[in-house]
Design goal:
By secondary structure, the chain is α+β, with helices and mostly antiparallel strands. 33% of the residues lie in helices and 21% in strands.
């Protein structure tokens, strides 16, 4: 009996030993890089347990403004200290005398450290170039003065540039053929997402040293510098933004308490975004809570009377702008008395300047009778329908889009609406189903200012290699499709200028600005109500200087009661800022 029990225990023991041996072989030999369902790299994890490191640069590409200034990050010369210093007699006095940091503060920081750190992080103590050279000249093991990349606490044009995050599943889906660490950052919105394949890191730059189980140096106190050593990466995405103008624009938007809306500023010459502000801001602690992640300047909005510019273009080309014809602006578009905006009898030019709904409702209906597609045709000619952001074939990518999350505008949603005279009249004043993005409205103004030339809007001018050479260029490109004629553009320019010059014009507030402005206002009914009051979208879209156009500016305040505004003041102050900049007054 005892012999059977012994044999049984022996079999169990041998089986257990074989299972254990098999498990060890699985861990040590077979699944060293893809252990368990989580695909843990055991080799990497074992190295991590024996090393301590300080990442200097995570290797992801950078965003620059048009002048080469870093937008999302900054490089700062910092003092790096390693925790093994606490076990050494190091010359803290000399480091203190050069850096200006008290000796006891330095030693206290080291005593409390469990891993290498940049002194003062997350608000690092910044060293001068001279201090950096002198500290490194001391050649103290564990004390380094280096240039480290830090993320800015406030990122300009945050919705346009976008966010990054960790998502292992999405990482594998996007890059199935690349060997990337599971915690590699990827772009999840904006330009970060559009340009992600170019921004993905080749590897991190870091300072590394090996430790034993107690955290003491394992192979002496030699610290290694690890770098991908690729002269071409990481790349730089050179945006068309002007960081200084962007900051001033953001300050103005907040000053005038634009809670939902913002502005778009374009450079007319190369049709690029100089600044773009969207509100509300992104909630840093919970980005997907609320609408902060949404770039309002790329989302279709109810545009109201700004759309009258499209109706005017169609009316000009079809002979409906007769100077002798008068419109009864004492009536609404439905024929009922207009009590609030009773302008009496107005001609075409004055109707545009004062934004008479009756006139443009009638004109839209007449155009619809001529051809139900005319309003959409002219909206397309002025770039309100379809995407306006830069797109094309680059490098090894077909139909690459800089602004992948851009909405397309529209005039009608159905053929029935397109053929309905009443719907056409409502569409003529930018209501009913008419929608456009603020960016598209800006491009419409740029198209008019250039005499009808319709081009794509760029947010990025090129991708540069690390050494400064160009990897990909994004040249100025025309938008496909028909455009308005130079003659029509000239007549629209005069109408837009009259909005400002006319003593009763809706843009008369801008008459005395240092730059001559031409533009169009808009107040759109949203169908939303708050405390019994209807909410409106307030717009002003224009360009300047009138004679030699340089800038397009669109300011919009969304979902506000009629008495609220801020748009006119925002627009005017931005014009003043640009004038001062151009004339060296700031």
């Amino acid at each position: 009996m005892w012999r059977k029990r012994a044999i049984g225990w022996l079999i169990i023991s041998i089986t257990g030993f074989l299972l254990l041996l098999g498990r060890l072989m699985q861990i040590q030999l077979i699944e060293t890089e893809t252990f368990s369902k989580h695909n843990v790299n055991l080799l990497e994890e074992s190295v991590k347990q024996r090393t301590q490191e300080l990442v200097i640069d995570n290797g992801r590409g950078n965003f620059l403004d048009r002048n080469g200034t870093m937008l999302t990050h900054k490089k700062v010369s910092v003092l790096v200290l390693f925790p093994f210093l606490k076990k050494m007699d190091w010359d803290a006095d000399k480091v203190s005398s050069i850096s200006g940091i008290p000796v006891h503060v330095l030693k206290h920081a080291v005593d409390g450290a469990k891993k290498p750190f940049a002194y003062g992080d997350p608000e690092p103590y910044e060293l001068t170039t001279s201090q950096k050279v002198r500290i490194n000249g001391l050649k103290i093991p564990g004390v380094f003065a280096i240039e480290k990349k830090f993320e800015r606490s406030e990122i300009p044009a945050e919705q346009l540039i976008g966010l990054t995050g960790e998502n292992e599943n999405e990482l594998k889906k996007r890059y199935p053929d690349k060997e990337l660490a599971e915690k590699t950052l990827i772009g999840v919105s904006g330009l970060e997402e559009s340009f992600d394949e170019f921004l993905i890191p080749e590897g991190k730059s870091k300072l590394v040293y090996h430790v034993d189980g107690g955290g003491a140096p394992l192979f002496g106190i030699n610290v290694k510098y690890v770098d991908p050593a690729n002269p071409f990466y990481p790349v730089n995405i050179r945006t068309t933004l002007d960081k200084t103008l962007q900051q001033k624009a953001e300050d103005l938007v907040d000053q005038y308490q634009i809670k939902k809306g913002g502005l778009v500023l374009l450079n007319i010459q190369d049709n690029s975004i100089l600044s773009l502000v969207s509100r509300p801001t992104i909630n840093k602690n919970d980005p997907y809570n609320g609408s902060g992640m949404t770039n309002m300047m790329l989302k279709q909005q109810i545009m109201g009377s700004v759309f009258k510019t499209v109706v005017a273009a169609a009316a000009i080309d079809h002979g409906l702008d007769n100077a002798t014809r008068l419109f009864d602006c004492s009536k609404k578009i439905n024929g009922k008395p207009e009590l609030k905006y009773n302008y009496g009898m107005l001609d075409f030019t004055n109707s545009f300047a004062r934004s008479c709904n009756r006139t443009f409702g009638e004109l839209a209906s007449e155009l619809q009778k001529m051809n139900p597609n005319l309003l959409e045709d002219y909206a397309a000619k002025l770039s309100l329908i379809g995407s306006v952001g830069w797109q094309g074939d680059i490098y090894h990518t077909n139909d690459f889009k800089q602004l992948a999350d851009e909405d397309k505008g529209r005039v009608f949603l159905s053929d029935d609406a397109r053929k309905d005279a009443n719907f056409a009249a409502m569409s003529g004043i930018g209501q009913h189903e008419v929608r456009a993005t603020p960016l598209a409205v800006a491009n419409m103004m740029a198209t008019i200012a250039r005499g009808g030339e319709k081009t794509m809007v760029r947010a990025v001018s090129k991708i540069e290699y690390k050494n400064g050479t160009t990897m990909v260029d994004f040249p100025k490109e025309n938008l496909k499709g028909d455009h308005i004629s130079p003659y029509t553009a000239m007549k629209l320019q005069r109408l837009l200028r009259e909005v400002v010059l006319n003593p009763n014009g809706t843009g008369r507030w801008f008459k005395d600005l240092p730059y001559e402005v031409a533009g169009k206002s808009g107040t759109a009914e949203t169908g939303k109500f708050q405390a019994g009051q209807q909410l409106h979208n307030k717009w002003f879209a224009g360009y300047f200087p009138y004679e030699n156009p340089k800038y397009v500016l669109v300011a919009v305040n969304l979902d506000v009661v009629d008495s609220e505004g801020g748009v006119n003041l925002l627009f005017a102050d931005m014009v003043k800022i640009l004038y001062k900049k151009d004339h060296g007054m700031q």
